[in-house]
Amino acid sequence: MSVQVTDVCMLRPLEVPFRYLFGPGPSNVPPRVLAAGGRGIIGHLHPEMYEIMNDIKKGIQYAFQTQNNMTIAMSGSGHAAMECAVFNTVEPGESVLVAVNGIWGERVAEIAERMGANVHIMVKAPGGVFSNGEIEKALAKHKPVLFFLTHGESSAGLAHPVDGIGDLCRKHNTLFLVDTVASLGASPIFMDQQNIDILYTGSQKALNAPPGTAPISFNERACQKMFNRKTKPVSYLFDMAHLSNYWGNDGQPARLYHHTGPVSGFFSLRESLAILAEKGLEESWRHHREVAGYLWKGLEDMGLKLFIQNKDLRLPSVTTIAIPEGYNWREMLQYIMKHHNMEMTGGLGPSTGMVSVRGMLKF
Amino acid sequence: MSVQVTDVCMLRPLEVPFRYLFGPGPSNVPPRVLAAGGRGIIGHLHPEMYEIMNDIKKGIQYAFQTQNNMTIAMSGSGHAAMECAVFNTVEPGESVLVAVNGIWGERVAEIAERMGANVHIMVKAPGGVFSNGEIEKALAKHKPVLFFLTHGESSAGLAHPVDGIGDLCRKHNTLFLVDTVASLGASPIFMDQQNIDILYTGSQKALNAPPGTAPISFNERACQKMFNRKTKPVSYLFDMAHLSNYWGNDGQPARLYHHTGPVSGFFSLRESLAILAEKGLEESWRHHREVAGYLWKGLEDMGLKLFIQNKDLRLPSVTTIAIPEGYNWREMLQYIMKHHNMEMTGGLGPSTGMVSVRGMLKF
């Protein structure tokens, strides 16, 4: 057989411009984290790799404020964690309740529908807040095995209150699943003290690592549900029975080959978690709040209106600006990118037409 | 609420020893590819990122020897490509035929079973070769929509012949899915000329990039099947309708947000594909064959027996050695690692008890 020649584009060098990543994510990656990700790799099943994974687990436990043994990093982005959470804790036909007030709830509802769950949604306009009363009413009505809420609704710029919801979920025998992709490290979350059963985040937001890994943690209640199911999760790759062994969480003496983890991605995730541990969570939260406050004031002084009016509900990591009438947001964002190398982004899903901007460069 | 302190392990620096990665994968990553992966990142939806993804597509088309438009890299390892191929081309209840002669067939059978396919397997001992006559008989009997075969059966060290099977699959209205994770770049494959309908590989084997991305390509026949299905694929993350748009393959003017791709992983994948394009496929195949021949002779001169006796069926990238009687393979591998920093590995799944070794360091 005859070999077709290569396209000439592959003989050109890789070109990567510098950009200030002020969109909701990914964020600019600090040199220390880039250097960790650029280290020569070792095998995914070497003892030294297990040590690095053990460290990552400790780093996630700190960042999540949890003692959960069942804590790992997914080999994938936040969507991999989303699918992992739903695929493992829900069986086809079971009831799932999803709070939709932006794009992330829409995504989880779609994921749960595809795997055959009986999905109920509570809908508010982007940035809307669900009261605990509303949530309890829906829990009582739909008796879901899982309730999903986004803590950091980046498409609206909202930090949704979480207090008390975990208790309501326990009362109604529901697992409480919280998405902190956009908020972890920027806005306080206490997985154990807030009775959150399943929590996940992404590497590429306030953690400042490249995209491609996603910390996730399951508490004992969640483990009871997911390890006592009648059917196998629909994905072999995201099956926590296997991932738990790969991360050394199942008490077995040997970790068996399941899939090949992103070795370089784990190096950079460990480094970013180490930076958070050195800095301290409270300082990270304070710093985000301080810089966000400075940004908010500057924007308001320019006459711009922020989309989330109540300061206490604003996400410190992602600020959303209402587009002034008569302006085209696409044109503005293109202008800023072209003249200042700065990324700001439009809304996503239900919030298309707003813009997001990060409050800080964190290195 | 009170903040728990961090574990002291996170205050220690990252430690990564140097290892010669002579196992079946991942491979040592050349400095050029590490440097590409360590570049400062840009946004996953920036025009410059689309250019890099376009280049990757061209690089995969060359490596696969295909003109298929529907060519992308998965944001995940080879298992992500495996699930993507099965989830998209098969609907629940449809018949799937899997050739099992090592671990990879077992994995695909499990993946297809979980998503509700009607799975039939053809089984041989590790390293066994299926004749085209046997395959046609099974195609006629089970009338599968998909037939899976591993080209590079790394758990046995086998390069399975592929010629003629694509034609049989067309005759029986079956899609031909081939796994080249362990073989691509080392052992010749011609996707278009061999009538392979779906082909995938991993980044971390002969391509020498870090694990975490997985090239995959679908031809027009495969697209006809997967884009005319009655049900949605069970995974939103692996849905080719969305991935196709993300990779600019669906003819739509805009690429919409689906998930956040592993930006650094795409940088390093592009660099590894560029090295292959510069070197040329024929030279890469020749080089692997030459070095493997040298290794085989050296091993046989030492009195060791290779597991695959027919030289023409040996995988040039992964050589398997039959364990001499009276020796403990685990102890031998530990000795080699301890004294020479060299990774060799045991078998996987059905071939546990054999050992694998790569023939070369490719930089």
Automatic annotation (TrEMBL), chains A, B:
Enzyme Commission code(s) on record: 2.6.1.44, 2.6.1.51
Family listed: Belongs to the class-V pyridoxal-phosphate-dependent aminotransferase family.
This protein's record includes keyword DNA repair: no
UniProt KW Zinc keyword: no
Name of this chain's protein: Alanine--glyoxylate aminotransferase
GO molecular function annotations of the record: alanine-glyoxylate transaminase activity; L-serine-pyruvate transaminase activity
Record text on subunit structure and interactions: Homodimer.
Enzyme class at the top of the EC tree: transferase
InterPro entries: Aminotrans_V_dom (IPR000192), Aminotrans_V_PyrdxlP_BS (IPR020578), PyrdxlP-dep_Trfase (IPR015424), PyrdxlP-dep_Trfase_major (IPR015421), PyrdxlP-dep_Trfase_small (IPR015422), SP_NH2Trfase/AEP_transaminase (IPR024169)
Keywords (A to Z) from UniProt: Pyridoxal phosphate
Gene Ontology terms: cellular component: peroxisome
An example Gene Ontology biological process: glycine biosynthetic process, by transamination of glyoxylate
Domain Aminotransferase class V: 20-347
Reaction(s) the record says it catalyses: L-serine + pyruvate = 3-hydroxypyruvate + L-alanine; glyoxylate + L-alanine = glycine + pyruvate
N6-(pyridoxal phosphate)lysine PTM sites in chain numbering: K205
Cofactor(s) listed in the protein's UniProt record: pyridoxal 5'-phosphate
